[in-house]
Specification:
Strand order of the largest sheet: 2-4-7-8-1-11-9
Largest sheet: 7 strands, mixed
Strand content: 15-25%
Radius of gyration: 17 Å
Helix content: 25-40%
Low-confidence stretches: 199-207
Structural class: alpha+beta
Distance between the termini: 12 Å
């Protein structure tokens, strides 16, 4: 993601986040990256089983579809190249389309859950190259959403030394700042390791 916050969370922490976002009255959850008309909605429980989820704020507008022949698929820009690659990769059905990340006022949420073995990082943010070009209201919404995690979380991993909290058992493959929401912090302080999932390690290696 272009703009994102990374965080550890338990199931209860994730529920607190969605209460703050206003799901399902203000926002709804949908599969990513393919979109259908009408949109396929996910429950919180269904969304937690996905690797990536699109969060739609209906006051800001629906995601913008992109298909071959559309301007967002043409030319040599990074966005256009990724759109063409993703179209080949995901092979949308006739009633599906990709989401135009530079035109859609949506948040990308990548959930990870606490298991008996470890707790893995989630992330929340925007894929847009410029959030303000979509709309100022959209930019404010993304910033408010990511700021909620920072305000309610505790920084436990980042650039300051190998570990921001050397007393915690955290070993990640990236050095971006990571916050722990209250339930996750309690789990980490109780000895639960913070780790990358194998899927995330594979994805990082491929990119």
């Amino acid at each position: 993601m272009v703009t994102a916050v990374h965080y550890f969370a338990t199931l209860e922490d994730q529920m607190m986040l969605f209460d703050y976002l206003g799901e399902p009255s203000k926002v709804t959850l949908h599969p990513w990256p393919l979109i259908q008309t009408p949109l396929t909605a996910l429950s919180r429980e269904e969304a937690l089983e996905q690797s990536r989820v699109m969060v739609v704020n209906h006051q800001l507008g629906l995601p913008v579809p992109v298909r071959p022949g559309d301007a967002a698929m043409q030319g040599g820009s990074v966005n256009a190249i990724f759109n063409r690659l993703n179209w080949e990769k995901f092979a949308p059905a006739e009633d599906e389309a990709l989401m135009d990340a530079n035109a859609s006022p949506t948040i990308l949420w990548s959930p990870a859950r606490l298991t008996a073995e470890a707790i893995f990082p989630s992330s929340l943010g925007s894929q847009a190259d410029s959030m303000a070009e979509i709309s100022k209201d959209y930019e404010r919404w993304v910033n408010r959403s990511t700021s909620w995690i920072r305000r309610n979380g505790t920084r436990v991993w980042g650039l300051e030394g190998i570990q921001t909290r050397p007393d915690l058992d955290i070993d990640l493959s990236f050095i971006s700042t990571v916050f722990a929401l209250p339930g996750a912090l309690q789990a980490l302080e109780s000895g639960t390791p913070g780790r990358d999932s194998e899927a995330r390690r594979t994805e990082a290696a491929e990119n």
